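Input C-alpha cells:
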C-alpha cells in the first residue's frame, strides 16, 4: 500500500515547486546583499539566511500537508475554529499590530514578523471549498447556498483592507470569486448574484463617498499617478516604477550576469520582495524571466488539471482556490512591476523574500500534491479493480467452456 501511495504522488509538481523555491533563494541573496549591508547594517547573507530558515520550515509544513489527508480539513469543527481564529487575529492587529509600509498588518515577535493576512488566504480557500462542497444539493438557492459564505468573506476582506492592506484584501476577494464562480450554480443564479452585488454596491456607495479622503490617501493616489505616467514624477511617486523599468530594460536577452545588477544598489527599493522579478530580468535577462513565468504557469495549470480530474467537490474547489491564488498573486506582482496595473506591494509566489508568504505557499502546494495523490491512487485502484473483474469474468468463461 505504501508503494502505491508513493507512486501516486505527482513528482513533476513537487519538482517544479522546489526548483522555483531554490531559484528564489539564490535571487533573494543576489538582490538583498547590498540592501542588507547599507540599509540594515547586517551581513550580506542576512536575508538569504532568513529565507533559508523559512524554506526549511516551509518544507516541513509541505511534507505534513502532502501526507495528511486533505479531506480532514473539511471537518465543520475545524472550519469554525480556523475561521474564528483568523477573525480574532485580524481584529487584534488594530490593537497590537506592528506598522510597516504604512500598514498595521504584522505581529512582531522579536526579529520575526508574522502577517496573518497571508494565512487568511488559506482559511478562506478551505472554508469556501468546504461550505460550497456541502451545499451542492441546493447551490442555486441564493439565500441559503451562496450568500452567507460570501458575506463572511466580505467581512474578512474589509478587516484586511482596513489595516490598510488593499493588495491582500483584493487577492482574498478574487480567490473567493473564483471559488464561488466554480461552485456549480446555474446561469440564472449568476444573474441573481450580479444583481445582488449591484444592490450592495449602491447601498455602500454613500459610505464610500463620505470616507473617500480616508480611502484615497495621498500614498494610494500616488500609486495611481505613477501608474498613469511614472516619468512625470520620477523622483517621488514614480520612483519605484521608473527604476523597475530601467532594470527590466537593461537586462536584454541574457542579462548583465548573476549578481551584476545596478538597480539593487539603493535605486530600487524592496528589490528582494516586491521587485525581485525586475532584478531577475536585469541579471538573467528574458531567459530568467521566462524560467520563472513558465514554472509558475506549470504549477497553476497543473493545479487546475488536478481540480478537473478530482471527483470530490471539496478537493476540486480546494485545488481551484489554491491555483487561483498563485495565478492572481503572480499577475498582480508582475503587472505592478511592468506598469500594467498600479503597485499593490504583493510578493511573487515562491520567489520573493517573505516568511509568511513562503510558508503559506508551501502549505498550499502540499495540499495540492495531496489532492493529486488521492486522485491518482483511487484511479489506479479503480483500474486494477476493473482489470481484476475482467480477468475473473474471463476465467469463469473459460471454466464454463471446459465444463
Amino acid at each position: 500500500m505504501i508503494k502505491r501511495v508513493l507512486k501516486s504522488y505527482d513528482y513533476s509538481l513537487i519538482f517544479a515547486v522546489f526548483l522555483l523555491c531554490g531559484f528564489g533563494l539564490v535571487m533573494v541573496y543576489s538582490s538583498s546583499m547590498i540592501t542588507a549591508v547599507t540599509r540594515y547594517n547586517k551581513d550580506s547573507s542576512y536575508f538569504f539566511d532568513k529565507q533559508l530558515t523559512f524554506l526549511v520550515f516551509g518544507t516541513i509544513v509541505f511534507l505534513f500537508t502532502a501526507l495528511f489527508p486533505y479531506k480532514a480539513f473539511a471537518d465543520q469543527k475545524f472550519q469554525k475554529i480556523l475561521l474564528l481564529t483568523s477573525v480574532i487575529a485580524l481584529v487584534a492587529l488594530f490593537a497590537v499590530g506592528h506598522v510597516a509600509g504604512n500598514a498595521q498588518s504584522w505581529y512582531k515577535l522579536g526579529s520575526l514578523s508574522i502577517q496573518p493576512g497571508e494565512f487568511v488566504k488559506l482559511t478562506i480557500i478551505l472554508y469556501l471549498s468546504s461550505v460550497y462542497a456541502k451545499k451542492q444539493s441546493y447551490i442555486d438557492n441564493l439565500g441559503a447556498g451562496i450568500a452567507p459564505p460570501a458575506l463572511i468573506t466580505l467581512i474578512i476582506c474589509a478587516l484586511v483592507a482596513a489595516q490598510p492592506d488593499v493588495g491582500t484584501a483584493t487577492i482574498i476577494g478574487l480567490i473567493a470569486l473564483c471559488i464561488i464562480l466554480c461552485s456549480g450554480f446555474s446561469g440564472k443564479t449568476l444573474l441573481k448574484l450580479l444583481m445582488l452585488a449591484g444592490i450592495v454596491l449602491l447601498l455602500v456607495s454613500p459610505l464610500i463617498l463620505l470616507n473617500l479622503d480616508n480611502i484615497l490617501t495621498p500614498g494610494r493616489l500616488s500609486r495611481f499617478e505613477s501608474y498613469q505616467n511614472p516619468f512625470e514624477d520620477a523622483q517621488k511617486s514614480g520612483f519605484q516604477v521608473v527604476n523597475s523599468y530601467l532594470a527590466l530594460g537593461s537586462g536584454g536577452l541574457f542579462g548583465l550576469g548573476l549578481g551584476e545588477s545596478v538597480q539593487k544598489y539603493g535605486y530600487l527599493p524592496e528589490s528582494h520582495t516586491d521587485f525581485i522579478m525586475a532584478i531577475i530580468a536585469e541579471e538573467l535577462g528574458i531567459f530568467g524571466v521566462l524560467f520563472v513565468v513558465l514554472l509558475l504557469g506549470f504549477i497553476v495549470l497543473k493545479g487546475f488539471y488536478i481540480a478537473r480530474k478530482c471527483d470530490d467537490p471539496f478537493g476540486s474547489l480546494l485545488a481551484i482556490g489554491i491555483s487561483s491564488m498563485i495565478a492572481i498573486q503572480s499577475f498582480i506582482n508582475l503587472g505592478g512591476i511592468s506598469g500594467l496595473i498600479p503597485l499593490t506591494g504583493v510578493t511573487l509566489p515562491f520567489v520573493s523574500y517573505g516568511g509568511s508568504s513562503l510558508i503559506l505557499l508551501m502549505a498550499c502546494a502540499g495540499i495540492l500534491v495531496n489532492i493529486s495523490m488521492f486522485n491518482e491512487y483511487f484511479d489506479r485502484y479503480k483500474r486494477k479493480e476493473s482489470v481484476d473483474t475482467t480477468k475473473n469474468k474471463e476465467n469463469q468463461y473459460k471454466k464454463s467452456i471446459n465444463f
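The chain has a mean pLDDT of 84. The beta strands are 98-100, 103-109, 112-114.
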